[in-house]
């Protein structure tokens, strides 16, 4: 028989056909490949115009339309005079922006972060930390400072959230198609061979492709290990953000810190200041130490002196449990080869990551960061204090409030988060260059002169857009999933632009207390079902896939939202991301935040709301602790009444209901025959006038320069001068001082002759003298001796009250006498003692060399 069917398997060749843009349209591609368009509404309008449908369906991705245009469509665009004029205008703006020379005065910065929230289409962020880092890069561009950033290009990024009919969160990880993203691959000099970064791990090498994101004038480099050169074991390093096990986390942090610095070296980039955005990036110090030790032949201590002098660590977590810890075995597996190369022992190395070097604590990334950075900070005033408490065990002998750990309150990038309507209004009324003066209240004060009607209409337009978005974006999905189209439609149609709409969007971590509002359902029912004063709530947020409690909370809220009395009054919007955030924080009337104090380190979504005249109702925690002004929003008191959390929750919930019933709802609906409430609009104006200017990213960046970067760059330059002369001298001084420290002896402590002294009793106004005689032994360094007063607080913790320096009055060989004559100033029960610390003019602060000797007064 004749064989009538026969075929071999096809062998397919991949063809990537990119649209060949005509010369006239090449500029489109150039603009698309610079995220400047993300915060330039004009540029977005241009891309939207090419194809409104594609713009919507790609969540606003400018790459896809230009890639998918057929030759005819391109010809049509080129023939469209209006379009071409718009392109000319946007391109001219872009060029003008890009051509401004960078600020050559302010120090340059290398910035490392695990995540960056720049635009929704680049899924390399999960939440607040990433959005903050993304906003920071955008402001670095606007402020035109010299900053280069490093992070990861995740294949799967963070998950998108969908909800099962039962309300169970489903986490979907979707692969990103790198060819459809506004990124560029970095090539070797030949322009053809992809650059491959080689990072030595213990015993093998990990290879990464390198991508670049143009964030206006700033370059963000992203590492990508998902390439065939790597083993199946290493390819997933950059698959997921905060996914995988501890070992993968270790491999990621190794790559970010060590690989990131190697990349900068490879690209010939060196900076004045190195900034770790969270402890994840702390291993950047490891490679920088290696560079000094192996590259320049410096001894370890001198290298550490130089690394510290140019490094800053920003902590975003208020609780120790939120930090990364690695056990010794895992640390050894990956960094076991490091101490030998640095010329120190394993014990010395691991001690850099321990509060108590002689213990067998796990290696803490934050402690390592603190030990290798001269400066450290929290992200709000309150969080700065919390961080001092949290880090106090690292520097024994000092009180938390004495630590050098400072703060910079987080801010948000105004051009990203203020809606186009508001930006137009600001430009028109505050002046064309208002962005340059965005941190001044005087700029924003002009809002007070605008008619209330203008403010209200601007707000309502954005609110309507939000409602429209919810109806179109969620409608279809919900109808498909609910099996009950009528109900879904009535819920969607029931979203009422005339209702007081309250938004709540954040990660569903338990401490954020999303459940607070649901403490008393009967009372809530009365609030949302008042026919004269309609109130609606929009909830949104993801829970970490490993956080069962958070997922339970989502389910709980979803169940409540389905009860007949809450149907259409409480609505849960799935998949909170930057795109939804930008619509939500601008379109609601109130943004609500109810964390357990002091667990919200800063929070930034409420700041985004401020840029849009949306009022905050929030616990006095994080940024709101500083930001709240009477008559410009609402605050839940910062007093903690109950130690028991459930009682505290009840009380806080009652406060929210009270505020809503007695203040917020009446104010909102006090219409006096107008379509809006004058009192409400005045509150909006106040919040824009008095709060918004202080929470912009520009203010935050200025703070980093003023409080940290400039200081670091100056000291670092001084230490480097003259072949590291001062670094070397300081190292030598530290070594000899540390070696001789214990040879110092207290000869005597004499107190004033007063007999009353012995009774420990004083009266205000009593004068006395303290005289300390020391034999410094082998110690040659200068000392500071001070009298410390402390007091026990209600929890029995010792609090710093005051310190007064003793004066060196006599020196005779190794014998030194210090004296202080003082008056008892305040009444009360004090604890008093003397403290001795070494002193050197080149120390940036005492925690830099924390030798402490306490001396009892008797
Ligand atoms: C701004 C933002 C956050 C951070 O807001 P918090 O107030 O810190 O909760 C989180 N997720 C998204 C998508 C954001 O845009």
From TrEMBL:
SUPFAM superfamilies given in the database record: UDP-Glycosyltransferase/glycogen phosphorylase
Any one GO BP annotation for this protein: carbohydrate metabolic process
Modified residues (N6-(pyridoxal phosphate)lysine): 608
Catalytic activity: [(1->4)-alpha-D-glucosyl](n) + phosphate = [(1->4)-alpha-D-glucosyl](n-1) + alpha-D-glucose 1-phosphate
InterPro entries: Agluc_phsphrylas, Glyco_trans_35, Glycogen/Maltodextrin_Phosph, Glycogen_phosphorylase_DUF3417
Gene3D superfamilies on file: Glycogen Phosphorylase B
Keyword Iron found: no
Coiled coil ranges: none
Presence of the UniProt keyword Cell division in the record: no
GO molecular function, one term: glycogen phosphorylase activity
This protein's UniProt keywords: Allosteric enzyme, Pyridoxal phosphate
Family: Belongs to the glycogen phosphorylase family.
PANTHER family xrefs: GLYCOGEN PHOSPHORYLASE
Name of the protein in question: Alpha-glucan phosphorylase
